[in-house]
Automatic annotation (TrEMBL):
<dbReference type="InterPro" id="IPR050231">
    <property type="entry name" value="Iron_ascorbate_oxido_reductase"/>
</dbReference>
<comment type="similarity">
    <text>Belongs to the iron/ascorbate-dependent oxidoreductase family.</text>
</comment>
<keyword id="KW-0408">Iron</keyword>
<dbReference type="InterPro" id="IPR027443">
    <property type="entry name" value="IPNS-like_sf"/>
</dbReference>
<feature type="domain" description="Fe2OG dioxygenase">
    <location>
        <begin position="150"/>
        <end position="254"/>
    </location>
</feature>
<keyword id="KW-0560">Oxidoreductase</keyword>
<protein>
    <recommendedName>
        <fullName>Fe2OG dioxygenase domain-containing protein</fullName>
    </recommendedName>
</protein>
<dbReference type="InterPro" id="IPR005123">
    <property type="entry name" value="Oxoglu/Fe-dep_dioxygenase_dom"/>
</dbReference>
<dbReference type="GO" id="GO:0016491">
    <property type="term" value="F:oxidoreductase activity"/>
</dbReference>
<dbReference type="InterPro" id="IPR044861">
    <property type="entry name" value="IPNS-like_FE2OG_OXY"/>
</dbReference>
<dbReference type="GO" id="GO:0046872">
    <property type="term" value="F:metal ion binding"/>
</dbReference>
<keyword id="KW-0479">Metal-binding</keyword>
<dbReference type="Pfam" id="PF03171">
    <property type="entry name" value="2OG-FeII_Oxy"/>
</dbReference>
Length: 312
């Protein structure tokens, strides 16, 4: 499928403004950091990255440079293609049985190129963080994310279908990410963070040509807990309604054998932390609430309540 090479990018465009009948919708204020300036080791950009990653754990990464124009086009094409797949009749989708085809056999040149490019962008951010945190070269953050080493890193296009909210379980419950960095591209609001500045849930507004980047658990642990892994969730932004929403996310995670310590001082291999956290996602609500793995806070789930959508 050929996509137009000019014009705005469909994902990362705040083209659907939040309706005026939602006057109390709280929006998060995030730092905007230029990838081009990070590559140049610009002092101001490096300081902004350090502040964003240590204080809030979320920031916008400006990718509107000539070196990343292909990446933005590829994100658009990837989401367009996935949207066509999601729109297929259910019976036709059954023809793409992953157990029969194998999880790697459908990877074409687009997915491989996009994953490689986003991995390289993530490594650039990790390299900059290693510099501002003055981490010794032999323990630099990028050394736990070498491209030739196996990891659970993934690229996905996620669909949140059109629904009316009737249940507090709707959307994606509060959690911190399991990996190192998540690079998210979306065109519709729906992502909320528990803003450390205000201790309030706040929506993140998508921005044209920018990735929404957040720090995950593994990177917090690898940085000796100097970086913040911020709680977030996906909930309806307008009158309890979720419209069809597609987003593209790259999950950069450490090598399988990377070792770090959690908040209790327990040592983990990256792959074991990954598997343990996903096991908790599937656990009953009572068990999730007793543990701190999902949210970093025992007894806290951060579920969305429709009656408090504006003030949460």
């Amino acid at each position: 499928m050929q996509m137009p090479l000019s014009g705005g990018h469909k994902f990362g465009v705040a083209s659907s403004p939040i309706r005026s009948r939602a006057p109390n919708l709280v929006m998060a204020e995030l730092e905007t950091i230029s990838l081009s300036q990070l590559l140049e080791v610009d002092p101001q950009a490096m300081k902004e990255l350090e502040d964003a990653a240590t204080l809030q754990g979320f920031f916008y990464l400006d990718l509107r440079g000539s070196e990343t124009s292909r990446t933005l086009r590829d994100v658009d094409e990837c989401v367009e293609t996935a949207g066509e797949f999601y729109a297929m009749p259910f019976e036709e989708k059954l023809g793409y049985d992953i157990d029969k085809l194998g999880m790697h056999k459908l990877n074409g040149s687009l997915l491989e190129r996009l994953m490689n490019d986003l991995h390289a962008i993530g490594i650039s951010v990790l390299r900059a963080l290693s510099l501002v945190l003055r981490i010794p070269v032999e323990r630099s953050l990028e050394m736990s994310h070498r491209h030739h080493c196996s990891s659970t890193s993934a690229l996905g296009v996620l669909k949140y279908p059109r629904l009316w909210a009737e249940s507090p379980q709707l959307g994606h419950g509060a959690h911190t990410d399991v990996g190192s960095l998540t690079l998210l591209f979306c065109s519709e609001p729906g992502l909320q963070i528990l803003d450390p500045k205000t201790d309030q849930w706040a929506y993140i507004r998508p921005k044209d040509g920018h990735a929404i980047v957040n720090v995950g658990d593994s990177l917090r642990f690898l940085s000796d807990h100097r970086l913040r892994s911020c709680l977030h969730r996906v909930v309806p932004p307008v009158e309890g309604k979720i419209t069809d929403r597609l987003s593209c996310a790259c999950f950069l995670r450490p090598e399988l054998d990377a070792v770090f310590m959690d908040d209790t001082g327990k040592s983990w291999k990256s792959v074991d932390w990954h598997d343990g956290k996903y096991k908790m996602f599937r656990a009953p609500t009572e068990k999730q609430q007793q543990d701190s793995v999902l949210t970093g806070k025992a007894g806290f789930l951060g579920s969305w309540c429709p009656d408090s959508i504006w003030s949460a």
